[in-house]
């Protein structure tokens, strides 16, 4: 999901300036980052003209421009109205949104020392800039007046007025001047700590690379993994060697296939010790400070803990509700891990491996279990998982479900040669643009995510959205197709689901558009989208062997289906461990926490199996400590998946299965198109005719439903 290092860059707010509008426009024209987007489709980012040295001036100008816009709204003559206050806020911040969109791309995908030095200075300034607006007493008084007299507005306008009012209140608009000042100080301190955390993590992911130099060190690795490692080494100036990068997409296949247990342990320890090496890039001290500052801010805002503050605006509403769902699933997940480990240990014992299953063995022996129990070797599946063919499959499924068409463009500026762009159409009408940045490179953060460069709106004039998907697949040899794992294919469909959510948006106001929904709801549409991958319609057309062009055999598909609950103990437990520790950290109040010790002790209380670790150990938990983004909110993936699997179950029971037209229409009308223009709980009930049923989730994982 969307995440920016330039923290306040996507804000639709600002606060006061002495420069004239004409002066701002002139300065913007001289800075490609701040300049209005020109060209087709309502304008596109001028990525080809960006210079890193221009970012400080661009952000400074954007802040000054927003201050002037907000000052005009806050001091407007006449009684506050929806148009002169709320709609005016929607019209403000255009330059900041443009600068922030470009800044986010460079920060997350093209980071370099010059940019990182800028971020350390800029992020606290941006946090202060955002607080200056959110604590603007005159502005809040006007917003509150509109909110208090909202009865004559349309339902969407009422929702927007509430969103603004609630955002300002949650940021401290009703606090005393002294408390407002302290909240602003906290936010600036946090901005600096978030930046330090992110840069430390990126440094560990970039600097720690395992180079292999002999054939014996490659033992067990499939040819495509070897080729990717060779290409990664050559790109780093070491031709003739093989590089195992410190990223999940490089670590996972090595731990799955390498027969060198000593090297598996080395790769595992390097990956899971990111941010936790006791050196200058260690994140534990920053985490301790972040937790204390978050608690203090929550107290000032009138909440018992940071978790209570965060969930007050979420679909779950309370930490108790989130914890109840997690603990409903946790015992079943842990019990399944014990079963999985027993099967793996039995194989190791039969092979006289003379070992006890350790975390660096789990993926390796799990594959042996998969082969033994399901006669399924995932190496048989991978030749059919061509990156580009699967991208075509995503397009096709989106066309069947939502009526989208994708047309590749060659004349739209991009930030890097690897990035490609498609126009998205529906019934011949332009809907938006989709940028695809699939490959790993130095300066790009690990993982996969979606960005919205521009949100859809239509209250003054139609403005279409611009979205991107970003991954970290390792390029293979020149001319060879990139083959990805089944898990990576699911992730690709998942992230594309976020993009589809944005592209389906059909609201009036950009603040309510697309993925601008509560954190524990935003993953719901994307998790549904994963379930078009295993359909016969997609696999028979797009899961084609990279050499023969033949579709994946039905017998192999049947094996995949039979093994669908395989390793769910591992997958659910490693995820839930992270989600539970996240929540427990933020429910601990003002305690002076040693992150490593807290993680270790709380996992022991939960009965965490020793054969695996949290998906994101605390010192590398970017979701939670690189921003406020998923803080006390990592449970959101479980919450959303429970919703998603309930809906998928309804699709599968419908006459047309996953392509049922009536279900697709209801999903579009009640979820995909409405963004945050209605309460998510209301939209879900309108879609399903009831509240969520957790049974579908438990069945999908192969867990008991009683």
Description of the molecule:
With 706 residues, the protein is of the alpha+beta class. It contains 28 helices and seven strands. The strands form two sheets. It has a five-stranded mixed sheet with strand order 3-4-5-7-6, sandwiched between helices. Helix 17 packs antiparallel against helix 20. The N terminus is likely disordered.
Beta fraction of the residues? 5-15%
Number of strands: 7
**How many whole angstroms does the radius of gyration measure?**
25 Å
Mean pLDDT: 94
Compact description:
The protein has helices at residues 21-29, 55-74, 82-91, 94-109, 113-134, 137-148, 155-170, 177-207, 223-235, 248-257, 261-272, 284-300, 306-311, 319-350, 359-374, 378-381, 387-402, 486-504, 519-529, 536-542, 554-562, 568-587, 595-606, 622-625, 636-653, 661-672, 680-688, 695-701; strands spanning 210-212, 242-244, 404-409, 420-426, 429-439, 449-454, 465-473.
